Structures are given as structure tokens and as C-alpha cells.
């Protein structure tokens, strides 16, 4: 049971996530945590996701702190316009960025290809091993994850092109032109969030502009890439690799099995964000609580969503 | 056919490798290239490997330029003590270092594990994904390859320990104590050459001192690691991963199939050095020719082998 130090009349926060005890205590020093039974009193919510039904039960709601970085899964139409929504970008960015680079290298350096052959007792060398050093790499999205991916690839010697809506400087050539970023790229990593601007952004022409032996990695959201475009490029180019941690049917991976099972696909089940890693999990929870407390204290919270990106 | 500009009486070099025409021309401006038929006239040799029989056929031999970085495959007992031997370390170091990091990340971030499951339609998340950032990594051997591996792992945020016989500074904690380097390491990469000092250097106690979920990567020579130690640790620790591009039976991979086929082994067929990559191949040939020409001109060649490391 939680021990609540907060005085009568302190702000009520509806918490639907399983907070570690010390974080629950930290939060309880400033607010009163309420559960489903007293949801109606809540002025703020701390959650992974939230339903339209929960939203209707909180007439006093002013602020939603989401524990995940992505906010595309929220029922945006049900969130009243005066309610401020904050995400948690950056809290697991290191984990996701490392995973993106791991996927890119595993595919690009043909570790997966040769390991699979060796296990079958096929010891023949067939495909060559390209260099990262000096090769063009495109990073789509220059948020916390994309920035780290771009920095890592640059440290490995790649010529990095960074693509995003707004100019950001770093060890990359910036471009707001997706085709320019991807043309001739041997590695491309998408760390784009899913918004109404990014849905279906990556089309066949972009994938086809990459090196024919290139590797496209997605650690953002599947829907940023047109599914038909991926099917077409995989059919046409046996040397091209599509590596993804995110899938169009979300957690219902069987629905994407037609793509997952293709030989030139590398697939993982949405785990890049430090799945099963307590350190990463702990940091996500901590940063979400800290950001919520910023709002409670009247400071400006980080990662405030732009409603117009989703509705 | 090669066109030889060299005057009568110029130095003869026995070339047993298939040089690109322009490099053959470059070499021919200074020396006369001879083949097997005129081997007896050769004062120098350019080769991948050399036999005792070839050595006996070259009474005038003073210098051997090997195209590979490793020199452990030479018939050292048959090389007269006055013959200088130069290797080609560094020429494909970038390729090997990139491959080592790719193997390490593919295994450590469990990309291989989950991809294999996804292909079988097993979408269950089971093992957690550890972080590179903040984790201890050991790099064994701080030559051209090891140095680059250490720099890359440091750029990815790992706390790197660098092990070698002689102190070398870089973005690592230097140690000449192998057990200190490997204790608690989550990633260890061996880029050690095979010499009489390194043969069997990595024993069970070193592997057992690593994190139980650790990843040991070998891109140097298999014989640096005791085969029995690897068998034992793989049997005892299902979460430990042994990832290797090099095998005890060299190119006869079937003889190491008992280890290659284990689930916690990642195996590739000795390809890290840029297999099938013309750019890497070209650079190796170029650097070997340039180093040979240093000796011909009376300059000090690079990568002169220490005979006492092999005999």
C-alpha cells in the first residue's frame, strides 16, 4: 500500500502505471495518487495509454503525462483541446538508438546472412562485405533517437545525411528533402514519430533511390513507411535488406508474417526501447514522474505534444 | 602480359599474387617481376603465403612482403634468419573492426536471437535487451584493428578496457592484465594476432570472469582462445554468446561444426577482412606493393615481423 504524505485538498493524479515504490513516494510528496475508483477527482494522469472512457471520467483533467516516447496511440479525438499532453521522448532514446545501429550493422555487414548459412553447414562465401566507412547513411528524424543514431554512424565513419522538418546541426549533412537524404544511401534508419505529416512518408521512390544492396532500418513507427513499397522493393531487389523492429499490425506480428518471413528481412518484435531492461524501464518511469512534477509545480514540462500533428 | 620498363639487371621480385595491372605496372617501374620459372633470381617475394619449397628455390631471397595482416601461417622454420618479413597490418583494419562491432552488437542487442524467433513465427518476448552505454567492454590487442574497435565501442558509450603487452593510450583504461580487462565485461573483442605469446592465452577463467550474459567476439585468430574453454562456457552458460569469424580448423569449418551449431554461437566464415569487397582488396594490394617498394628503395618497411614471436 502507498503511504501518502499529501495534505487533504492536494492535487489528485490518476496513475494507471505500475510505479516503483520509491517513485510513487516521490510523487506522493507533492500530489495525491488516485486509482480508477477516484478517477473523477483527477486533474492530471500518468499513463502508458488512455482510453476515451477514462477521459470521459475525468472532467477536471488538465494534463496527461505519457510514459512512452510515441504519442500516436492516444485517442486524440477524445482529448479535449485544453488538455496538455506530454510524451517521454529521450527516456529510452539511447536504448533505441543502440538497437537501430545494431540492426543496421548486423544486416549491412552480412553477419545475419553468413551466420544463418554456417548453422546449415553451408560454409560457402558468396556475398561481399561492404564498408561503413565512407558510405552514405541517411537518418530520418533528428529527435533524441535520430540524433544519437546519426552520431553513432558518423563515429563509425559513415557520411551521414540527416533528414527532418526543421534544420538541426550535427555531424551530418542536413536536408529537408527525403529523396536527397536517401539517394544512394547504403544505410537508412528511420526514427521518425508517427504523425499526420509522417504517415506513409517513405514511398517506393525513396527506397528505390537507395543503393540496391542497401539496408533500411525502422525503429520508429511502421506506418511511416508504405507497406506496398516495402513489398515491391523486397520482391525486386534480393540484395536489399529491410530491417524493422516495428510492424504495421503493431503487436499482432502474425499479420505481418508475409513480410517478416522473407529472406531479405530482419525482424524483431518491438523491443528496441530496452525491452526487459530494468535500467531503461526505471529511467522511463523516473523521467515521466519528473516531467509530471514540472507541470504540478507550474514549470514548463518537456515534450509537449503538438495536437495539430495528430488531429 | 605485363610490360616491364625495368632495365636489365634490376632487382627481381617473385610475385605469387594476382596483382591488378596498374599495381603491376607501378612495381615494374622499379623492379623486375618474375614468376615461378625464374624464382631462383628473386631477391624479394610478394605473396599471401609461401611454401618451404618456394623458400628453398630462392637462394638470393632477402625480403618477404606478405599481403595479409596475420603472419602466423608462414613456415617460419623454413625462413632463413637473415630474411626480413613484413606483414600488412592496417590495410584491412577498418573492415575487420567494423565487422567485430557488427558481430558484437548483433549478439549483444539480441538482434540475432529475436530475428531467428520471428522467422519461426515465435513472437514471444523473452530475453531483455542490455545497454552498451555504461557497460564494460574489453578489447584484446591494441594494434590497428583493436584500436579502431576500442574507439568505436567508446563512441557507443561503453566503458572500454584495452589489453595488450605494451601500454597504449586511447579512449580506454589500459591494462596488461587479461583477467582485469575481462572481469565483468559484457562485451569482449579479441583482435590479437597469433604468436607464441598469444596461443591459448584466453582460458576458461577469463571467459568465466565475464558477465554471464556477456558476448565474446573473435576476429583475430581462433587459436588465441582455448577451444575446451569455449566448449565449457557454452555448456554452462546458455545466456553467454561466443561470436567468431575465425575457427580452429581454419577454412575447414565442418571440423568446428560442433561449436558452430550451438544456439549461443554466432558464426561467420572468416570474412571480416572485407571479403568480396574490391575497395578493401585493392587497398591491401596497394599497401603491400608500397611497403615492398620501401624496402627496395632502402627505406624502412612497415610491419616488420619479430621472428621471436613465431619461433
Strand content of chain A: 5-15%
Briefly, what CATH class of the largest domain in chain A? Alpha Beta
Uncertain parts of chain A? 1-7
Number of domains of chain A: 2
Protein name (chains A, B): D-isomer specific 2-hydroxyacid dehydrogenase, NAD-binding protein
Keywords (chains A, B): NAD, Oxidoreductase
Family (chains A, B): Belongs to the D-isomer specific 2-hydroxyacid dehydrogenase family.
GO molecular function (chains A, B): glyoxylate reductase (NADPH) activity; hydroxypyruvate reductase [NAD(P)H] activity; NAD binding
List keywords for this structure.
10 helices, Rossmann fold, 30% helix, 12 strands, alpha/beta, 311 residues, homodimer, 5-stranded parallel sheet, 7-stranded parallel sheet
Walk me through the structure.
- Chains A, B: Residues 101-272 form the D-isomer specific 2-hydroxyacid dehydrogenase NAD-binding domain.
- Chains A, B: Pfam families: 2-Hacid_dh, 2-Hacid_dh_C.
- Chains A, B: Belongs to the D-isomer specific 2-hydroxyacid dehydrogenase family.
- The structure is a homodimer of 311-residue chains.
- Chain A has ten helices and twelve strands.
- In chain A, the strands form two sheets. The first copy, chain A, has a seven-stranded parallel beta sheet with strand order 8-7-6-9-10-11-12. A five-stranded parallel beta sheet of chain A has the order 2-1-3-4-5, covered by helices on one side.
- With 311 residues, chain A is an alpha/beta fold.
- Chain A is elongated and about 70 Å long.
- Chain A folds into two domains: 12-90 and 278-309, NAD(P)-binding Rossmann-like Domain (Rossmann fold); 93-267, NAD(P)-binding Rossmann-like Domain (Rossmann fold, 3-Layer(aba) Sandwich).
- Chains A and B meet through helix 3, helix 4, helix 5 and helix 10 of A and helix 3, helix 4, helix 5 and helix 10 of B.
